[in-house]
Amino acid sequence: MADAAILRPEPVFTPDSAFFWEGAARGELLIKQCGACLRYWHPPRPMCPACNATRMVPARMSGFGTVYSWAMPIHPFPHGFSAPPIVVLVDLDEGPRIVSNLVGVDPRNVQNGLRVHVEFEPAQGGRSVPVFRPLGAAP
Ligand SMILES: [Zn+2]
User: Which of 38, 54, 62, 67 could form a disulfide with 114 if both were Cys (CB 3.0 to 4.6 A apart)?
Assistant: First the structure.
């Protein structure tokens, strides 16, 4: 039976992003790592932007990061949310920057430089989506 409280839209799978969402389903934050020059790249794409290699390995991130910037899209109201989400750019400790949502914090208390950790929220169809929560914030 579907949980009526879950409104978050399902992630869109592509051949390049399937590994990311499959990792999220297991509670793992995976980022593409170049099999040649070992750099990380995100969002996923078929070729390393640094050396043009097409061989990649999914690398598991620690999930720790720092808020680089954030915004709250209030108008138009985003589809699939019961309240305006906090959209955040997180610099992962390993280096890649990722777009996500920030949870467990009053928007008045969000600031750049906030330390966060990943967790996973369910979407409408049962898949999981990575979101970030400030360190020390209650679940
Ligand atoms: Zn490369």
Answer: 67
Q: How far is the CA of 102 from the centre of ligand 1 (A)?
A: 30
Convert the pLDDT of each residue in 70-127 to its tens digit: 999 888 877 778 888 999 999 999 999 999 999 999 999 999 999 999 999 999 888 9
Tell how far the Cα of 93 is from the centroid of ligand 1, in angstroms.
19
Contact 124, 7 (CB under 8 A): yes
Q: What CATH topology corresponds to 18-134?
A: OB fold (Dihydrolipoamide Acetyltransferase, E2P) (2.40.50)
Distance CA 116, CA 127 (A): 22
| For ion ligand 1, residues whose CB falls within 5 Å | 34, 36-37, 48, 50-51, 53
Q: Where are the domains of the chain?
A: 18-134
Residue type, 47: M
Q: Note the pTM of the prediction, 2 decimals.
A: 0.90
